[in-house]
Amino acid sequence: MEKIRQNQEILESEIKLRIQHILSQAFDNLSSYDPVNMREGQRSIESLMAEICLGGKPGLKEFCELQDGFELNIATQLITCLERLLGKDTNHPISSHICHTLELLQGSLLLHPASRSLFSRHINMNILLDLLEPQSEPEVHIATLATLVAALVDNWDNVRVFESLNGLASVASLMKSKNSTQKVKLKVAEFLYFYLIPEPTFSGPIINKKLNIRRSTEEKELMLAKYLHNVRSLVKDLQELTPFGEL
Fold first, then answer.
1. What is a single Pfam family found in this protein's UniProt entry (predicted)?
2. Closest Cα to residue 67, out of 115, 104, 22, 124?
3. Domain range holding 150?
4. Which pLDDT score, from 0 to 100, does residue 58 have?
C-alpha cells in the first residue's frame, strides 16, 4: 500500500514538472513581440488544455494546483498579453492574435474557475470592455462576449464589477450600432440572456456590501432598460424558452 502511494506521488510530481516546463516555455513565447513566437506560445497552451480536457496526462488535479499559484497561472499571462496587444493597431493580424488569446482565456477560466477572481479587479475587467469598442473587428467583439460569460458565470462579484464599469452600456451599444454585424448582434443577445438570469440569494458572510448584492431578473431588466428598449421581449423569451433550464 505504501509502495502504491509513493508511486502515485512520484507520478504526480512528474506530471507537475511537465506542466511547469510546458507553461514556462509557453509564457516566454507569449511575452515575445515576435508574432511567430507568440503564436507558438498560444499553441502550447492550447495543446496542454486540450490534453487535460481529453483526460490524458497531465491531469486536471495537478494542473489546477499549479493554477492556484500566481507564477504559472495561465489567465494572468493571457490578460497581460491582451493588455499588450491592445496597445497595437487593431489590424487583422493583431485581431487574430487577440481572438486566439481570448479563446484560450475562456478555456483557462472554465478549467480553473478560481481564476475568474482576476476579473474582480477593475483593470482586468476594463481590458475586456475596451475590446468591445467600435473600432474592434467583429470577430473580436464575438470572442470578447464569450469570454465575458466565462468570467462572469457563477461569480456575482464579477457581475457587479461589470455593471459598475458601465459594461451594460458597452454591450448595448453593440446591439444598437448600425455597424455591428448580424453575428455580433446575435452574440449580444446570447450574452444578455445569460446576464438576465436571476441570481441565487447570498448566504455567506458579508465582506463587501457593494459586491455582495444579488439581483433578480426584474432588477436587471430595469438596469438594462436604461440602454435598450426591447428588454421586455428578451425577458419574455428567457422565461418562455428557458435556454438555460428552469430559472
1. CDC14
2. 115
3. 116-246
4. 61
What is the distance, to the nearest Å, from the Cα of residue 75 to the centroid of all Cα atoms in its chain?
9
Cis-peptide, bond into residue 113, ω within 30° of zero: no
- Give the model's pLDDT for residue 231: 84
- Grid coordinates representing 175 are 446591439
Domain-located, residue 78: no
Helix (H, G, I), strand (E, B) or coil at 90: coil
Residue with cell 512520484: 10
The residue ranges of the chain whose pLDDT is under 70 are: 1-9, 56-58, 88-93, 202-212, 241-247
* Residue 142 lies inside a defined structural domain of this protein: yes
Buried b (16+ CB within 10 A) or exposed e, 149-162: bbbbbebbbbbbbb
- Please enumerate in sequence order all residues whose Cβ is within 8 A of that of 157, keeping only pairs 6 or more positions apart, or say none: 117, 120, 208, 211, 212
User: Domain count of the chain?
Assistant: 1
Q: How many CB atoms lie within 10 A of CB 239?
A: 11
- Please tell me the predicted confidence (pLDDT) of residue 245: 52
10 within domain boundaries: no
Q: Which amino acid is at 94?
A: I
- For 18, 56, 58, 77, the CA distances from 14, given in Å and listed in that order, are 6, 14, 9, 23
